Amino acid sequence: MNLMLVAPELTIAVTGLAVLLIGLFLPTDSKKILGYLASLGVLIALALTVSSLGTEALLFYNTVSIDALSQFFKIVFLVVALLFTIAGIKYTEGNSNTEEFFTLGLFATIGMMFVASANDLMVLFVAFELASLATYALAGFEKKNIKSLEAAMKYFIIGSLSAALMLLGISYVYGATGTTSIPEIAANSATLASSPIGIVAVVLLLAGFGFKIALVPFHMWAPDTYQGSPSVVSALLAAGSKKMGIVAALKVFVVALIALKADWQIAFAILAVITMTYGNVVALKQTSVKRMLAYSSLAQAGYITMAFVVLTPIALGGGIFYALSHGFMKAGAFIATAAVTYMVLSENKDSADPDHIENFRGLGKRMPITALCMTIFVFALAGIPLTAGYMSKFVLFSSTIQSGFVWLAVIAILNSAISLGYYAKIVKYMYFLPTDSEKVSEPFPYTIAMIIAAVGVLALGFWSEPFVHWAMEAASVLLTGGM
Amino acid sequence: MDSFTAITIAVFLPFVLAGILPAVAKLLKDKIGWYASATALLSLLMVAQVAPEIIHGETIQGTIEWLPSMGINLSFYADGLSIMFGFIVSGIGVIIMSYSNGYMSTKEDLPRYYQQLLFFMGSMLGMVFSANTIQLFIFWELTSITSFMLIGYWRNRPMSVYGATKSLLITASGGLFMLAGFLVLHAITGTFDIPTILHNESIREALQNHHLFIYALILIFIGAASKSAQGPFYIWLPNAMEAPTPVSAFLHSATMVKAGIYLIARIHPMFSGTEAWFILVSGVGIFTMLLAGFLAFRQTDIKGILAYSTISQLAYLMTMYGYTTHEEPGIGVAAATFHLLNHATFKACLFLVAGIVAHETATRDITKMGGLRKEMPITFIVATIGALSMAGIPPLNGFLSKEMFYEASVEMGHLLGGPYTILIPALAVLGGVFTFAYSIKLIDGIFLGKRPTKGLPEHIHDPSMVMLAPAIFLAGLIILFGLVPSIPVHNFIEPTVSGIILEEAHLHVKLWHGFTTSLMMTIATFILGILIYTQYDRIAEWQNRFNAMFPWISVNYYYDGAVNNAKDVTFKFSSRMQPGPVKNYVIAVLLLTLAMFAIPAMMLGTNLIPQNLNFDVPLYEALIFLFMIVAALGAALLPRYLPAIIALSGLGYLVALLFIYLQAPDLALTQVLVETLSTIIFLLALVKIPQKFKEHIPTTTLARDLIISVAVSVMIFILLINATQGIVAPFESLSYYFIEKSLALAGGHNIVNVIIVDFRGYDTLGEISVLCLAALGVYNLIHSRGEDE
């Protein structure tokens, strides 16, 4: 077994432990170095993952698989982790618990990465829970902020319930097929497919993953949690953790339970339509930008879920590519919000709603870089051409129509039209509404993180070919059964 | 330079030069407008370079690879249609940007203004030369965004922001419908490439017979109608007049609003010849033409009149492009194309005049003006030429194309037969009558009559040549095209028409062509127009009264209602759906799971519970279970914390007892230890919280929660019984393996021990390291606590 193949995960693990240990002996003032250390670790892991593209291998008694799919999603997670750690440098400034922040973030990343390469339901579940537990704690990182605590509590309770349902679903699958290995389940799923017991398993697993992907009605924690958590953590949740739910669902449904496709396809179709419509409509009248972004995340998850309905190689590739794009766009948008929140709080320490849309008024003048980046992110989320968001929607929607689901694509496009309403509102506040406040200096690490994300969004939009190609290769792993 | 390169440069040059514009602005200061005009001129020259080839009947196509795996590339296609638009866009661009040098005050943020104008021009050129639908969509949305920015140019005016948002919401959403239409088109034809569809008859035939044809048509038409302000989508254009006047002249009369017309012309060969095309395009066109022409009467703002006039004129074009029958798909194409060119000249000219008048008199309210002919003689002449051309007076170019419109209407009515023989020409004349009336109003209201005694500045005069020259140039074109129609017809109209009807076109347009039906119609138009004009103010008053009485008649009523109320509706919606307490969230998840569980439960029915339970329950085991149930109920129901916790730990110890009975003493030991520890922690925490449940729960809530809990418990119970007894596993349980192998392979009798230290030794190692990590965490906790104190 070649340990180099799990080198990215090991790097992250070592970095996480090192940050925790070093943090013990540092005075609070010099803990800033930890953030740089964490970012460096993620960067190395990212480089290692990119250099291993194209490798295929099975590790740890076939429980972990390295293939195009796993590497693609690992890159998604590492990119989000990189944005998280860089933005975290500023966020944790002067905080005595800095090392916990980064260690938890890195551990969550390991969990996500192992979900991406899981070839066995047990590995998948354990990794899933690793990421979940770390993010539960991160959501409540601001121990003295009642909103942050509420966010963490709701997230944890609903999360535990879903984990229980998911585990029950996995037991059913194991009971009926005699294996927890994903490809073997696919090979032995005749028993499951022929009996209504299969539906029981699908129902339970859907409830479990629906929570993480935040599909309506399993979404209810998401707006509260995204709004209450620190913005940087919301970025990790919306951009990273949500994608983990998607890759897990892809592995479990599209690979392992493909024989039961008739049962879950219709469920996903209904959930996709409800989720995107609910998310977009409710987002229209949010005054908290973080909450608005949370509802927009619901909508985006609804679009991605369309891939489970259409199930052609292009649609799955489109969904996977969408996951990458959404990682950049949503993480960027939350980090931009973090920068605004930081500015508001440094002007007025007791501000109750630092992410209120009124605080974005005249941002084009006050924080030009932040405003420009935010514009790129919301335009991308709205699917305006030449951004990652447009390309993703294009690939996904066109494949949907191609396969004859014209109604689904039309609903999705109508939804995109609705979403213009609230995205345009943010731009309107930033550029068109006047403000008396002065220009302020923009917090440096936030700016770096935003620029990286914005470059990513534009690069994916302009120069999509290689990324779409990778996404298609990743999708082909799903359809060949992961064997 | 080959033609493809020339087109590529024409499209991208404005983007590149606009990109560096802020830097150049530091050098040129107030003269930056001339830099922008020069850029537009360069694009115009590039387009002009390609023109001769197109006039000879060739087409140009080229591709740069972009996203080959999806079949999308950056590709340009030039035929008569796109070249004519290319000329209009870059030509009017030069005129507008030169004019802006006089119009825009140097106090304004000029770099932003010109940069956005150039971005717009580039997007518009990109759109008309796009060879594939996706690229067309991208440039299309870029024009919507730049239009949004330009309408909202005066950021501090609330109406500007309102108009900008409205235009973006309507045109960009319309664009999304168009994209959906293009995707459907791709699903039918298998290609995004426009020329491929245009030049392949079998594809076009297959398209028209496909069952998705009507969806593609409707979706694309919604895009075109929203952009060209047709049908109910017209409402954004009047509000867009908040933009600086040169912007209105450029975007909202001459070019951007014609994008929808361009699209209709572009897809004409694919969709025309069908009834659906005629009903949709001409139907919406005629309706909009009459409505907007009529509503123009009410306007008192000069730009308002021009906006409604633009909507109405665009509707003429729609109507003409819509005239089609199966045998003769392109009845109105020549007339529409010629009128399109003419409208660009006279409407841009009139907007420039409106800008001049507003600039000099500091108002745009036509009721406050009059008698300006003496003070602004040149402006007066230019305005008269523009307005008379719009009214269709010979020998101006507007007369020629309106004659052609009447001719096509007569032909269409004749081909349809029945009442349509009269109806369609009559409606066309009615549209012409409205146009005539408001055109006269513009001249009469501003320049003729008496000068009002107050409200106008004392000294009003013609503006500088910077502003006047572009308007004079356009007026010159109006006369030239009217007197020598062969120039535009030969160079622009014929190549365009043959590009649309896909065969060689030879047109004979002459100023005098005998006493034809259409000439009679024109004369009728003039007579009726003068009659209506005498009642102009009365009609306007009646419209105001009517509108005040029935506000719901206006589309704006619904737009404002939707945009504002959408907020309230969603607020109510979300406050009901998003109640806050986490209990409700859990209930939602559980209920849905229950509901989904009902499907297999109903399918399986009683089979879900196995018939023969393979359980052998001795008496004292049953007793333990009974005690466990009692303890669990006690933990849930006891009113105080302390007894509840005792009941809970009692439950834990009973589980330990069960483990002992099941011959797992080590497990029982662990259970006892954990239970003891957690009881102690509970008791410690108890000290800090109130000793009594204070919350009062209403009976209904209690009943609801009870029902849900029981339902979920029953579900889980059934599931577990089913899982342990109902499913006959297709494989041997893992425990047999350990029973067989633990002595043979590891030499141990205690299977649990063997598993922990041998079979899964690595896992144990991992667990130990986890414990070490936990210890590290605890140490850190204690450490940080010390630091706080």
TrEMBL record, chain B:
It is found in: Cell membrane. Residues 626-691 form the MrpA C-terminal/MbhD domain. Residues 130-416 form the NADH:quinone oxidoreductase/Mrp antiporter transmembrane domain. Residues 67-114 form the NADH-Ubiquinone oxidoreductase (complex I) chain 5 N-terminal domain. It comes from Methanolobus vulcani. It comes from the Archaea. InterPro entries: CPA3_Na-H_Antiporter_A, MrpA_C/MbhD, MrpA_C/MbhE, ND/Mrp_TM, Proton_antipo_N. Coiled coil: none annotated. Residues 704-782 form the MrpA C-terminal/MbhE domain. It is a multi-pass membrane protein. This is DUF4040 domain-containing protein. GO terms for molecular function: antiporter activity. The chain crosses the membrane at residues 6-25, 32-51, 76-101, 113-131, 168-192, 212-237, 277-297, 304-324, 330-357, 378-400, 420-443, 464-484, 511-533, 585-605, 617-638, 645-662, 668-686, 706-728. Keywords: Antiport, Cell membrane, Ion transport, Membrane, Transmembrane, Transmembrane helix, Transport.
